[in-house]
Specification:
Largest sheet: 3 strands, antiparallel
Shape: elongated
CATH class of the largest domain: Alpha Beta
Helix content: 40-55%
CATH topology of the largest domain: Alpha-Beta Plaits
CATH architecture of the largest domain: 2-Layer Sandwich
CATH superfamily of the largest domain: Peptidase S8 propeptide/proteinase inhibitor I9
Order of helices and strands: EHEHEHH
Number of domains: 2
Number of strands: 3
Oligomer: single chain
Strand content: 15-25%
Radius of gyration: 20 Å
Length: about 130
């Protein structure tokens, strides 16, 4: 039996993406009319905005935003586990790209840089072992 990915949701936060890529001012005001404040951080993995909710009331907040499908593309819980995976993968890809951009480097440096990539991948893999 294959073990399915289990999200690691942030408590007291949701993500909302608006149609037609609305700007931050629109998102802030729209949330405020529903009684929700935007978080003081930017979502790094797309065009969604982060809103604060009371802990345990994330689904209620999602439902409030989804009542306005003419403005809201989607709303969902914030999965910080998935964000962590994306950040780790993006970092590892950048490391590989730096090696590719300088592929003529001396063997010792090349191997040291590959060792750093291997370590990065092993750390990514360890993060999934804790969830089994």
């Amino acid at each position: 039996m294959k073990i399915k990915y289990k999200p690691k949701y942030a408590f007291g936060q949701i993500l909302v993406e608006f149609k037609s890529a609305k700007n931050e001012q629109f998102a802030r005001e729209f949330g405020k009319t529903l009684g929700y404040e935007m978080a003081n951080e930017t979502y790094e993995h797309g065009t969604a905005f982060i809103y604060k909710t009371k802990r345990g009331e994330e689904k209620t907040a999602i439902n409030q935003f989804e009542k306005y499908p003419e403005f809201v593309n989607w709303a969902d819980r914030r999965d910080i586990g998935l964000e962590s995976r994306w950040n780790g993968l993006e970092s590892t890809i950048r490391m590989l790209q730096e090696i590719a951009d300088d592929a003529e480097q001396p063997d010792t440096q090349y191997n040291n840089n590959l060792d750093k990539v291997i370590t990065s991948i092993q750390l990514l893999k360890q993060g999934t072992k804790n969830k089994k």
